[in-house]
Amino acid sequence: MPALLEIPVRVSGIKYDGSIADGPGMRTVVFLQGCDKRCKGCHNPETWDPKGGVAYSVQGLADEIMARSEFRRVTISGGEPLLQPEAVLALIRTLKDKGYDVCVYTGRHRSCVPQDIEDAADYLKVGEFMEELKTSVIPYMGSSNQEFIYLNEERLSGSAPCPK
Ligand code: SF4
């Protein structure tokens, strides 16, 4: 097993400080490579092939993000990030240690998100993209069936669901 920060991660692309649509504030978005959902109307089909994209180590990816993003807000998207759960967890923890605000987008249901990833992140967006429910007016949503979760607010209010 590689050391935590040497964990490999495949990346489709990175948008530095370039999105206000992927969580609160101006954010850097990391599009991880690989997705098994094949949603109709997907905007990122180039992320589907798990062998595509560019190989990084978590440390190398974190270093590049920290060198090139000014606002310290990062969304880990895809593709489906939960296909690379060890890398996602290590990246979240590395960025949080440096004071970053971190969001994870997944097409899966919340019950499928590993507890350690949920515990480490600031926000989650969960739920599959459904083209027939596509929206451009609900903040951070691709389709209206999805859910954006403010994890820190849940923790403060004590309203988080029971541990899985
Ligand atoms: S989960 Fe996201 S990246 Fe994967 S097919 Fe669906 S919309 Fe595309």
* N-to-C series of helices and strands: EEEHEHEHEEH
Q: What's the tally of helices?
A: 4
Instruction: Tell me the CATH topology.
Output: TIM Barrel
CATH architecture: Alpha-Beta Barrel
Distance between the termini: 26 Å
Return residue spans where pLDDT drops below 50 for at least 5 consecutive residues: none
Helix content: 10-25%
Query: How would you classify the helix and strand content by structural class?
Result: alpha/beta
Present as ligands are: iron/sulfur cluster
Quote the beta fraction.
Answer: 15-25%
Gyration radius from CA atoms, angstroms: 15 Å
Largest sheet, spatial ordering of strands: 3-1-2-4-5-6-7
Mean pLDDT comes to: 94
Characterize the overall form.
globular
Integer count of domains: 1
CATH class division? Alpha Beta
Summarize the main sheet.
Answer: 7 strands, mixed
Function: Activation of anaerobic ribonucleoside-triphosphate reductase under anaerobic conditions by generation of an organic free radical, using S-adenosylmethionine and reduced flavodoxin as cosubstrates to produce 5'-deoxy-adenosine.
Catalytic activity: glycyl-[protein] + reduced [flavodoxin] + S-adenosyl-L-methionine = glycin-2-yl radical-[protein] + semiquinone [flavodoxin] + 5'-deoxyadenosine + L-methionine + H(+)
Keywords: 4Fe-4S, Heme, Iron, Iron-sulfur, Metal-binding, Oxidoreductase, S-adenosyl-L-methionine
InterPro entries: Aldolase_TIM, Cyt_c-like_dom, NrdG, Organic_radical-activating, Radical_activat_CS, rSAM, rSAM_sf
Q: Could you explain the architecture of this structure?
A:
It comes from Kipferlia bialata. The protein is an alpha/beta fold and 164 residues long. The chain has four helices and seven strands; from the N terminus they run βββαβαβαββα. It has helices at residues 58-68, 85-97, 115-120, 151-157; strands spanning 8-19, 27-32, 54-57, 73-77, 101-105, 123-126, 147-150. The protein has a seven-stranded mixed beta sheet. Strand 5 (101-105), helix 3 (115-120) and strand 6 (123-126) form a beta-alpha-beta unit. Helix 1 packs across helix 2 (85-97). The longest helix has 13 residues, at 85-97. The mean pLDDT is 94.
